[in-house]
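Consider a typical record:
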Amino acid sequence: MLSKLFFAFILLLSTAVYAQRSQGKVYAEDKPLEGVLIINKTQDLMTSTNRWGNFEIAAQLGDSLIFSYSFFETQIHQVEAYQLEETWVVELQESRNELDAVTITATNKVKEFRVEEYDKNFNTWLQKDIQEHPELYSPGPSGSGIDFIAIGKMVWNSIKKDKKEKAEDPNRFRILKLGELEAFFKKDAFFNQDLLRNQLAVTQEEEPLFFDYCLEQQVDARLLQDKNEMRFLEYLMKRSAEFHKLNAAN
């Protein structure tokens, strides 16, 4: 009899611990923030604040809660006992960085090509290269004059090298491509099919359309970097909400 009571007590205790939840409010500058992303990294759960800045999420003592919101510094809180017993408050601090600025201005008008500026830059480069490699610009054995073929090859190689260096720079802004996004969701441990199906509620049939919808916004490829994980997740949450709203309207 005692053993049964003890077992029942343990079962009730474990159920109570498992069912624990953390409730709170998020604000900035004395105003509640709606749409703040809250992630329980320990249990792979997520939610967001409502219009009054309130949130509720399953949590246990010691879990890591991440608070992320556009243009605000991300905060990480390790759950303490009082945060499971009473409503607690999170104050986010505004913070703008280079990624935010580039994302906002990504659709700005492309810089106009100016022939005069190009000629000036090319002539500067050419004069410098003549000084560094005079043998390439002297008449050849046949006396036919400057080796324009060699000059053309050098110019082409210089252009290719510059383009390659720009493309390989991970900190340089560029638009994310569909193939990159699809490959990322196939190999990443967090951004995967489980996230799409369970957290973003995107079905297998909707997945291609959802990816197309996201890329219509000209996504900054740097969002796939580990340091921008929370920003990318927040971006996907917002896009999925819009995507489902459009589907419901149609």
Remarks:
- The beta strands are 21-28, 31-32, 37-40, 45-48, 54-58, 64-68, 75-78, 88-91.
- The helical segments are 2-18, 98-104, 115-132, 148-168, 178-187, 193-199, 207-215, 229-249.
